[in-house]
Task: structure prediction
Amino acid sequence: MADINVDISLLPEEVRRKLAELNLELSEGDITQKGFDKKRSKLLAPFNVQQPPQDTGPSAPSPQTAAQRKAHRRLTREDNRYHSDSSSDDDSIFGEDVSRDFNRGGRFRDSGASSSSFSDAGASPHHQGGRGERPHSAAYAIPGNTSRQALADVLQSSRHCPRHQGKVSAKIQQLLNTLKRPKRKPLKDYFVEEDDALEAPQPDPNAPKPEGSTLTPVPGEQLVVPSGLPRNLEAALQRYGSSTYKANAVTVLDQNGKPSINLTYGKLLSRTHKIAYTMLHKVGQKGEGGIKPGDRVALVYPNNDPISFSCGFYGCLLAGVVPVPVEVPSSRRDAGGQGIGFLLGSLNVQWALTSEACHKGMGKSSNGDVANFKGWPKLSWFITDHLSKPPKDWHPPPKQSEDCPAYVEYTQSKEGSTVGVKVTRSAMLCHCQTLTVASNYTEGEVMVCVLDFKRDVGLWHGILCSVFNGMHVIFIPYSLMKIDPASWMKMITKYKASVGIVKSRDMHWGLLAQKDHKDVNFSSLRLLLVADGANPWSLTSCDAFLNAFQSKGLKSEAICPYASSSEALTVSIRRPGKTSASKTGRGILSMQGLSHGVVRVDSENSLTSLTLQDCGQVMPGAVMVVIKIDGPPVLCKTDEVGELCVCSGYAGTGYWGLQGITSNTFQVQPLHGDGRSAGDKMYVRTGLLGFLGPGGLVFVCGSKEGLMSVSGRRHNTDDIIATVLAVEPMKFIYRGRIAVFSIPVLKDERIVIIAEQRPDCTEEESFQWMSRVLQAVDSIHQVGVYCLALVPPNYLPKTPLGGIHLHETKKKFLDGSLHPANVLMCPHTCVTNLPKPREHRPDVTPSAVHVGNIVQGARMAWAQGRELSISDEDSDSARKHQFLTEILRWRSQTTPDHNLYTLLNSKIQGKWPYQVQAQLTMTCSQLHKRAERIGSMLMEKGKLNTGDHVALIYHPGIELVAAFYGCLYVGCVPVTIRPPHPQNISTTLPTVKMIVDVSKASAILTSSIVLKLLRLKESTGIVETKAWPTILDTDDLPKKKLAAIYRAPTPEMICYLDFSVSTTGMLAGVKMSHAAATALCRSIKLQCEFYPSRDVALCLDPYCGLGFGLWCLTSIYSGHHSILIAPSEVETNPAVWHTAVSNYKVRDTFCSYGVMELCTRGLGTSTATLKARGVNLSCVRTCCVIAEERPRIHLTTSFTKLFANLGLSPRAVSTSFGCRVNLGMCLQGASCPDPTTVYVDLRALRNDRVTLVEKGSPHSLCVMESGKLLPGVKVVIANPDTKGQCADSHLGEIWVHSPHNATGYYTIYGDESLHADHFDSHLATGDARLSYARTGFLGFVRRTELTQSDGERHDAIFVVGALDETVMLRGMRYHPIDIENTVSRSHRKICECAVFTWTNLLVVVVELEGNENEALDLVPLVTNVVLEDHYLIVGVVVVVDPGIIPINSRGEKQRMHLRDGFLADQLDPIYVAYNM
Result:
């Protein structure tokens, strides 16, 4: 193919981006060479400039060929491409000739030879056997992201440039600046990217589709305003207040149900004028800001005082002030108060109108003023009672523009935030005229209203339309309805009312008050407005009410369902008495079809059908359309369910101060399917879902607020509530006290049902009812319920009128503060979009993987500490000794008075500077002599022979060290054992006995304190005294000296046994030879630079692992002074360790995680006190945590930050790592690089892959390096199943080769044959000659930018977790600590957590640090968070008291012990939830 000569730098940015993507595809094998050439030629063809060909020499390939060859180079992984890990290997990236030519300055220079950052030292740079000679090339290190989109441009633009460093650098910098693009996802190596599999389920292809034609806008009849109506509301008030001033305007029933409180139109007009005058002229005279026309004021009146509210509302209208009716703030459980306060603040409300009685009932501050309510702005209060008359010559101010806001009505968005809808003066007047025409209101009619008069239908009809038409309204307070639910029916009968305004709830309650039915007469009633008639399930109440009272004069056409919206106000109303509008309709529809958004007729008796009644026709003067629920406002088809939108002169004009969401709600312009506009009119979204039936009838089947989209289907909360009510509602739960909502979990909505149960309902009955509800919802709606919870009676958050505050309920549920009494979770049936389980490929051999790694250029995962050689040692003559006993004897002769050990207790004595009290000190000579006397006791009293095992049971101290060397002096093998805990003998003593038995100890060395513990009555009841071997008390020693100190024939003989119980509950003892013990000490000495002049503080347990080595071995070998602090002393006084380190100016200190946690918790508020006492930690060079686990980054970080005030350097705190097969593999040394921290992708980690990500990335896990490898230690990462060596991008088992490896298991309690190859394993691929020990821990190796003391780049080893602790679920490997960290963050009351598996179910045990009624709050939160973060379904959630989860002395959770306790029913849980 002919070359295309194009200057890439001059191409448009879009073309350059496509070229870069094309090169990337070629390099990753996503496209063939032929396809690459074809696509590239097509891209560059429009820009091609033909030039005569240039001869580049017979031996040099064309630049195009060079670029193509380089594009074939494989990278190790995507993360290496984006992380700058420069190589430090000595291998040159050039061949010899190429390098020589480069150094001489060849004619051509290829600036694009490197397409990655060469982070993989194992990559093979020499590609031999190519046809023709390789082009001369040099690699330029581009910092940061050296992605290959820069490659093509640099190759093309600099191919023929003369050597000019500045120009090339500028070119590279230009490319880096202009070709930035988002990072591509990593290669899908052996596992599926879980996020792709988690996409929301696709719609069912077999789902019904709408088949009708596109709906056109449907207009209502023309609005013809009767000529006799007032011109506005102020004129109406003036007219009726003057002409019919004695006629009643408002009547309110008192608590006895008597209509004793009345307001005439004359009084209404008089009080209105008083309020308007006082507001404008007298308010604000005491220094507060006044009220001017256009200001917003809050109307704060109780629900039983519509008279004061009416006066205040119309007083504001007369004064030109904008009223904002709100609920009375309360300290009770009325929810939503803070949202209303936020709304008032955004409206800049400074004054509130209220009645005298209401003002007295509010909470007061110490100076008598109304207390500030939470979330509310500071308000001045204006009492509207007992005001003086305005002057006779005073007239209300002139009316403002008709476009000015008349009032603001509060409402709540779907998200729960409180917003204010603006209604202009013209809209208010138009609304009154429209409702008057639609409802056929006339002067003097009597209306009975049960609704809230401050907003919605109650305000529009009961306050506005009633005055506009001079009607008499009888208000029934909600508090009275609870006492006498038939009171509204009695008032209709008494006053012969023609209009009633109720909700279906009031009709249902009225049906239940059967004793009052005989006196009811509805013959005068022409209009019974059902305000929630848009709710599909109001039909049941309407039919039942009609059947019950048709004989009492109730006419069927009088029942008029009403559809309303806070934004569009009245949507539709069924209008009786008019021939053209008297059509009523019903439809029996398929709920299955409605869930897919289409209208389909169903059979009448079907369980899955929904019977809808119409809500009348489009309002006079209005136009209605139906648009799609999601996406752009496209018109629906005639048989499609969508959102109803109204264009009218009376709708709201916007949300106050929220222009963004205002345009989306109040300024909707419908579109055709092809994107064309469907007209010039602007519509308002109503939030109601439905369709338009025959004759323009409006059918509503739900609301956007109650819409739940689950697995591509839509369900409405009202439908679910109706199904729940059908399952024996009156027996177990309260009708009307049910909350249904959805929560997002795992990229889909999940249905939650919460109901208030009756107090006499037992737990068993509750669960039976809950099970029936689940079955009913599943069979009727074909959808699963994620969570069903029952709460105690009267417990759910309430609205001021007694309904359930849904948003507050949802918030409490998600916050874990709802406190349910019963919970049933069903994640197994609901969550169907989990990623597919990982499939393991047993046919992939380790050799195939190894070849694949080589082809990809992957670096094999291995690392090693610096080599041990005799020249590493100093001139100290101790190097001549191979045994620790000889070293101790030599030190006792050469430096007899040198202090080896100081034991401190928790007492701090004296005044400043404070000193820690030394309990005991021991020099070399004293330790040697005491060890000799203990050895003499073993020979004389114990009658022991060489090679016998001796159990050492001591509290942490110097006596343990002396006993250890006493055993070695006579050739016995010591076994250190933790003594039983005095407060927990029943649990700890059996472990002591087990180790004594398993180690086959012939005698026990102990102190008198421990001996008393073993002989307590409680102890002998567990282990009889006779069952112990010979017990020797070292507090009573003979004074005889040993004749001679035993010397083992070879260093490979056993020095001591190291026993430890793993977190899985397995007791394992390893054999440590004399050579291994000495080699361990030597490595630690070299790593930490220990010398006799050093002071080292130890605050850890001395019974096993590296802790034992530091406590008993290293001081003898290195001669440094060890300051010993038992962890129990830190429990008594958390400051003792820090004070000791400061007193002795210690440079190196070692502790356990348990000690670090004690200090963090115990000294959290005491750092200032410690500083005042002179504690200074700036001397600390190394503060190392001794552990056999993944570093606890959160704890070490907290520790560092807390004590930075005392001078502790962040770089000083580090971790170590040891295990059973090698007690000390990693330890932060004196001259080691700083600890490295990386962030890995948790999803990749589950698939045994290591993908580095940026800090803060989703699903990222922070992992810290587990210290630096000790000298002489070499590790490799191997596949635990195939034994093949892994690349550094894989997670595998850590294998170790070291002179201080343990020589084998002495025994493994419970399984004698466990992993016989643990200490002599060989790699299946890689260096198969070397013998390794398998640690049983998973980890990975990463090469860093740091430089070691020997000049080499540092390889960091990261421990992820124990292999036998991992949980295999759904084919993936989970580490319990990751799930536990996630669970612990889900609720503030969780103080500890542990997970394990039981019959393939994930069991989560959480400790609750709170009241028992909070236990069930944790169940849904734990289930949610584990699903979200780990894609796992929790099978069982167990809530227990604090302290139940067993934790060993090293601070590690004993998960298998916990599992055994769970299976044996020994946990005494607060609650156990079995998720269905």
